[in-house]
Specification:
Chain lengths: ~260, ~280
């Protein structure tokens, strides 16, 4: 079934405009549970209460505040919050391009597919140009009262817009010390290298299944029919052996596997 | 209608991982037969400008669950988790069941395959974590990270954390392993599923025109100053202004909150990487 566009906009590169529709690229498959009252098996509701008395505070009496120091709040009124909203716009402005794989993985947040909104020519030409140049565009736009920075990329023949996290929300490995401990010796490094090389391949995401999700769903179905299987606790063991020995063994085992295949 | 008061629950905090100095998850990184015990810590800070819900006098409020039937507040032990199989019909699933349903090797992050990091399309990346060595695994940890860093490789695996299985890419940076959770293949739509039109041949001149624009506006790297949170910055400015004008300020007696001390995630990580986690 075709998906519905969640937003419409216009990519703006210099004076060139490319009208696009935006679609969520993600379809979350997480098993969703509801919180129920045990006694009545009905869904619970939520409300805000005075912390000490537990007395309910109706929605119209609730204020929003920013805690400037413990116990001191600056109240933000409705009009204050409105003043923070960026000006509405349909433009996705692209003013800069950087090489692909230059933006570190931890900055990428939510991906959206873009589809052509009318002019298919410009849409596919831009995707092709990005892919030929191996570049991605840095995009700024406002969607649903929220300002976004994102990366405009070509994925196969299509345009993708991935939102990027604010730098202040990402911890950088560069600000951390390198882990303590003795450096591995040459022999160990060369064996580890051999081992990793044996396991090297292409990124095949389809080879990885959410096994746990499948198990949970299967169990739910069985339980719904009234025959839930008995579950046992699995204990995980940890084995300790010298790094040297373990590396040698691993390499031998993998080589054998490869020969057999 | 006034609702009966429920027993006090400590829900004034938001259960944020940053409020705890303990690791978010502990397990074992394995490659071949080598196992490396690790602790996992969040790699993101939450937005610092989250607002608190306050009462008419400015007192911080708490969120509570209540029953639709009796309208009384509920304690944790009066609530269960249910999966809706039909309208208003639920199958109850307990914590214990969820725990026991975890695959045998769920505590292991088994690096079955290594790929070039740049081969992974960014669409897959979800959330970021750091892995720190634990239980004296520094040597094996360093061995793995040095080996991978040289070739810019990422190890791909799945593991179960807090009732959910994750696909993850593990890669070192500055000697530290980052674990980037990823979406499973069936959690990403394809252009075909969305219903995007098939690619059509476009005139070479149109492509060239865009290539020229791209070339003219290209830089070597993205400056992090581009990644501002405009809304948060505006909010902080507004708060500062109001504070200077002494407008809309309320001071309340700090109510007793458990674990209100926000732990500096960076400090915890630094200690952990220096092998001094016991102090935390």
């Amino acid at each position: 079934m075709a998906a519905r566009a969640i937003w419409k906009g216009e990519l703006k590169l210099n004076s060139t405009k490319v009208p696009v529709k935006l679609y969520s690229a993600v379809q979350d498959q997480t098993v969703r549970f509801h919180v129920l009252e045990e006694k009545s098996k009905t869904r619970v509701k939520q409300h805000m209460v005075e912390t000490d008395s537990g007395k309910e505070v109706p929605a119209e009496e609730i204020q929003k505040g920013f805690e400037v120091e413990p116990g001191t709040f600056v109240i933000l009124e409705e009009e204050d919050l409105e003043s923070l909203e960026p000006e509405a716009s349909r433009e996705i402005e692209i003013e800069q391009f950087v090489p692909t794989a230059q933006i570190a993985p931890e900055y990428y947040d939510r991906p959206y597919y873009l589809g052509p909104d009318g002019d298919q020519n410009a849409y596919f030409a831009l995707a092709e140009a990005l892919s030929k140049q191996e570049k991605e565009g840095v995009a700024h736009w406002v969607m649903r009262k929220q300002p976004y920075v994102g990366a405009l990329r070509a994925e196969d023949d299509y345009l993708v817009l991935v939102t990027l996290r604010p730098a202040a929300e990402v911890l950088s490995a560069r600000d951390l010390p390198r882990p303590a401990g003795r450096a591995p010796d040459k022999k160990e490094l060369s064996m580890a290298r051999q081992l990793v090389d044996l396991l090297k391949g292409d990124f095949e995401p389809k080879d990885f299944k959410d096994e746990y999700r499948a198990r949970v769903m299967e169990f739910i179905e069985k339980k719904a029919k009234g025959h839930a299987p008995k579950l046992h606790l699995v204990k995980t063991k940890r084995k300790a052996a010298s790094l040297d020995k373990v590396l040698t063994k691993s390499i031998e085992a993998l080589k054998k596997q490869k020969r057999a295949a | 209608m006034p609702r009966k008061k429920a027993t006090r629950k400590s829900d004034s905090g938001d259960g944020d991982a940053q409020r705890s100095a303990r690791p978010f998850w502990s397990g074992t990184l394995t490659f071949g037969l080598v196992s490396v015990p690790v602790d996992l810590y969040p790699g993101n800070r939450t937005n610092r400008t989250q607002l608190r819900m306050l009462g008419p006098k400015g007192e911080p409020l708490s969120r509570r669950y209540y029953s639709q039937k009796t309208e009384r507040d509920l304690d944790n032990d009066q609530m269960v988790r249910g999966y809706e199989i039909d309208k208003d019909k639920y199958v109850i699933i307990t914590d214990e069941e969820l725990e026991r349903l975890a695959p045998e090797k769920s505590r292991d992050i088994d690096l079955r395959s290594f790929v070039e990091l740049k081969e992974i399309p960014p669409l897959y990346f979800d959330r970021s974590y750091f892995l720190a060595p634990s239980e004296g695994s520094e040597k094996a940890y360093k061995l793995l990270s040095e080996t991978m860093e040289k070739e810019k490789l990422a190890g791909v695996a799945t593991f179960v954390m807090r009732g959910k299985e994750y696909l993850v890419a593990i890669f070192p940076e500055n000697g530290i392993m980052r674990a980037e959770t990823m979406r499973f293949a069936d959690e990403l739509r394809s252009p075909k599923e969305i219903g995007l039109p098939e690619k059509k041949k476009v005139p070479a001149a149109s492509v060239k025109k865009f290539e020229n624009i791209i070339a003219r506006h290209s830089d070597k790297r993205l400056s992090l100053s581009e990644l501002k949170d405009e809304k948060a910055e505006k909010l902080l400015k507004l708060v500062e202004k109001k504070r200077k004008q002494s407008k809309n300020i309320v001071e309340v007696e700090e109510p007793e909150r458990e674990e209100t001390k926000v732990v500096d995630l960076m400090e915890v990580l630094k200690k952990s990487l220096a092998g001094k986690r016991k102090a935390a």
